[in-house]
Amino acid sequence: MGITDFISAAWDTFSTPSPDAEEPAQANKEEESSDEKEESSDDAEEEEEEEEEEETVDPKETLEEECRNSKECHPAKHHYDACVERVTSQIDNDGKASEDCVEEFFHLAHCATACAAPKLFSQLK
Amino acid sequence: MLARSALRTARSAGAAARNATSKTASRSASSSSSTAEGAAPWTANALPVGASAFAIGTVAWYYHLYGRNVDAMTPAEEGLHPTQYPWEHAKWHKTFDHQALRRGFQVYQEVCASCHSLERIPYRALVGNIMTVDEAKALAEENEYDTEPNDQGEIEKRPGKLSDYLPSPYKNDEAARAANNGALPPDLSLMVKARHGGCNYIFSLLTGYPEEPPAGAVVQEGLNFNPYFPGTGIAMARVLYDDLVEYDDGTTASTSQMAKDVVEFLNWAAEPEMDDRKKMGWKVLSVSAVLFALSIWVKRYKWAPIKSRKIAYNPPIRSPILDKLPKPNQKS
């Protein structure tokens, strides 16, 4: 087997068109059709997403609301509710309040955010 | 060995003390015939006891006067301490999530940049972290910057380059105050480092606006109630609302998602070296671990012959002549 054999073999390999030369065109057609399908499915997904986006709810709000009503934060919520009741009645009766509920609000918010923090970050990307 | 010698010294010290006490006892016993009785009168201990009582008293009085912290501020003036959130990028074996950085930069551009500057970040810093070179160049060219003075000494405008810094929304602080009702929107470049609580504080501040302030709380005109801001009255109104931006990667743009992304971006802006720093930390750890293991093996190699040697004492053979000699104390 000499170098001439190698050259002739190489010539044979590259000169004649390969038998599956037609294949890529078909594949392209298939890809196009699949692309179209994907596009249509993309459209459908986008529509779904748009529907979802219209209803986007901040998970932080819902989680903290759950936490606020949980047993864990019951004392803080109890004090906050009592304070709100007291202060609103003062405002209704005297026109002004002798105290505010900021501190009670802080305790409740502290409890609720601490309770919701790990759940929230597991939901966010 | 050391412990044993220490014990021995302690024992001898105890013996000495015992001797001393027995000596004083014998001395007092010998002198007891002259004094009335063995019990010491209370006046003998009055001075040390009185001095001790005075010392305790002064310390107590000092603590009473100066020892305790004086908290003059109300909780509302201190602000609510932000909650600790489990930040992924803050873990010591994690890096920034660069998708989140990209989303965060989008939030900064679309929401924050209208009031807050980011003047310490050049476009080139974004390349490779947040966007590609071409994207960054295109972004830079959207803005105009001053050129060097030309032949006539006039300063012209040119499109931005990668080496330019992000444009500020206002010319100077006074213009910013004038546009924002007297309140200055701070520069955000180092904000994560500049505020107590860092990422947690900014995230809590952005998402923590309650729908209405708690009952009885007084909110000044032009301010908004935010529990996390010291004093609770903040000039910035709530800016992040659900679906305010539309993310390129299809992430649901909830308020907390946007806040999380922009906070991670701001953390990157303040600490762009964090990823490299952690990489360097791992290099240090791995190299020192290798050296530590090596040192243990070398130590064992060096000490093996020393530890495994055996010291044998072979007494000289007694000469039979000496045995035959009479011992001095024995009668032969």
Automatic annotation (TrEMBL), chain A:
Annotated family: Belongs to the UQCRH/QCR6 family.
Domain Ubiquinol-cytochrome C reductase hinge span(s) in chain numbering: 58-125
Spans annotated as Disordered: 1-75
Assigned GO CC terms: mitochondrial inner membrane
Gene3D superfamilies: Ubiquinol-cytochrome C reductase hinge domain
Pfam families recorded: UCR_hinge
Natural source organism: Aaosphaeria arxii CBS 175.79
Places the protein is found: Mitochondrion inner membrane
Topology of this chain in the membrane: Peripheral membrane protein
Compositional bias annotation for Acidic residues: 32-56
Protein name: Cytochrome b-c1 complex subunit 6, mitochondrial
Automatic annotation (TrEMBL), chain B:
EC class of the enzyme, as a word: translocase
Region (Disordered): 1-37, 141-163
Chain sites annotated for binding heme c: 112, 115-116, 236
Entry keyword annotation includes Zinc: no
Keywords: Electron transport, Heme, Iron, Membrane, Metal-binding, Mitochondrion, Mitochondrion inner membrane, Respiratory chain, Translocase, Transmembrane, Transmembrane helix, Transport
Enzyme nomenclature, EC number: 7.1.1.8
One GO-annotated biological process of the protein: mitochondrial electron transport, ubiquinol to cytochrome c
Protein's recorded name: quinol--cytochrome-c reductase
GO cellular component, one term: mitochondrial inner membrane
Example GO molecular function: heme binding
